[in-house]
Specification:
The chain is of the alpha+beta class. The chain has eleven helices and 15 strands. It has two domains: 2-145, Aminopeptidase (3-Layer(aba) Sandwich), CATH 3.40.630; 155-320, Gcn5-related N-acetyltransferase (GNAT) (Aminopeptidase), CATH 3.40.630.
């Protein structure tokens, strides 16, 4: 009965109960990003602070919610000592509650743990869900003060079809660029992630992220991923005349039967060779042969005006929302922050529309 439910908050993956990964594997909402290997890599390789919540019944986990404390992104720099913080489930990756039964009572206990974990200037709690099936918790979360939004999405390609049908669904332009890369002698292969290979990939990844002013994860995070995830990490490299021209970094999400494209290492000077189209082509074929049901292009802005979204859409995938749920913990400060963020996003969207109307899209390859 619900009276036997107990609650634990864990400041490290090392103390999580042994049944954590079993709950993740057996749940239709489970994914590789909720597994202890991924959580351990974040703990080892970033400065994010773990605050994982577990509900147990008679000592057996029946509900869990992985979380990390991180600084809230602001449009202006703020000293770390005074920066507002939030509890995120989770980023990098995706999280949210996973419940196996007694849903209302278990979720109440999980959220009680979230409030307990929200120390040290934490203003709010943010949940990022990977599976659209997470909407089954919508009424429960809404009743407990969580507000949904959809700002990003993922594009999934169905690999249960014959591979020729998969490629036939690509746009004419993507088929052309992949063919052009093949005709130029570009080869793509899965490579062993040796220390030299990891360093070469990271250099290209860092250059690409810095070019677009994105969030660049430190080398320690990638080293931790290789150490903790093992064969769940798949690295593909594109070469022309034995010279590397691009990498794609994948995560094998066995829980969801999906090969998940998570990072790219592409230098601007190689875009004209179209390594991205060729890498996607080779990885889709490999994933199909390996028995994966879907190929996930990773997270994109949920905006048809966004160049990255438009590019990925050319590969024939289905668009699925990444639903985010937020709730204030420091209510007054959270309300002020949300109002200011809404104004900032409105101004940013207006500026983006103006830029899009006056700029000309170039024809180079993208991630």
């Amino acid at each position: 009965m619900s009276s036997s439910l107990t609650l634990d908050v864990h400041a490290s993956v090392r103390t999580l109960p042994s049944g954590w990964d079993t709950v993740v594997s057996n749940s239709p909402l489970g994914s590789v990003f909720a597994r202890t290997e991924w959580l351990r890599a974040i703990e080892r390789g970033t400065d994010l602070t773990p605050r994982h919540v577990v509900v147990l019944r008679d000592g057996t986990p029946i509900g869990l919610c992985p979380n990390f404390v991180s600084e809230i992104a602001l449009p202006i720099p703020v000293p770390s000592a005074v920066a507002p913080r939030e509890l995120v489930s989770i980023e990098p990756g995706f999280g949210g509650p996973i419940l196996t039964g007694e849903y209302g009572a278990t979720l109440d206990r999980l959220l009680e743990g979230v409030r307990t974990a929200a120390t040290g200037g934490v203003w709010g709690h943010r949940i990022r869900t990977l599976s659209p099936a997470a909407v089954q918790y919508a009424d429960l979360l809404d009743a407990r003060g969580y507000v949904p939004s959809v700002l990003t999405c993922q594009l999934l390609v169905d690999l249960t079809r014959p591979i020729d049908a998969v490629f036939d669904a690509w746009s004419k332009e993507r088929r052309r660029t992949a063919r052009k890369a093949r005709d130029a002698g570009m080869t793509v292969a899965q490579v062993e992630p040796s220390a030299t290979e990891r360093e070469a990939f990271y250099d290209a990844y860092a250059a690409m992220i810095d070019r677009v002013d994105g969030v660049r994860y430190p080398p320690a995070f990638f080293e931790a991923l290789h150490e903790t995830m093992g064969e769940r990490i798949v690295l593909f490299r594109a070469d022309i005349d034995d010279d590397p021209v691009g990498w794609h970094f994948y995560v094998r999400d066995e829980e969801r039967g999906s090969l998940h494209h998570f990072f790219s290492g592409l230098r601007e000077e190689h875009f004209g060779h179209h390594p991205s189209s060729r890498l996607h082509e080779a990885a889709m074929e490999w994933a199909s042969d390996a028995g994966f049901g879907t190929y996930n292009f990773g997270e994109s802005n949920a905006a048809v005006t966004d160049g990255g979204f438009r590019y990925k859409s050319q590969y024939g995938g289905d668009v699925l929302p990444v639903v985010t749920w937020e709730r204030g913990i420091a209510r007054g400060r959270w309300a002020v922050y949300r109002a200011a963020r809404r104004l900032y996003r409105t101004a940013g969207a207006r500026a983006a529309r103006q830029t899009d109307a006056t700029s000309r899209t170039t024809g180079g390859d993208q991630p």
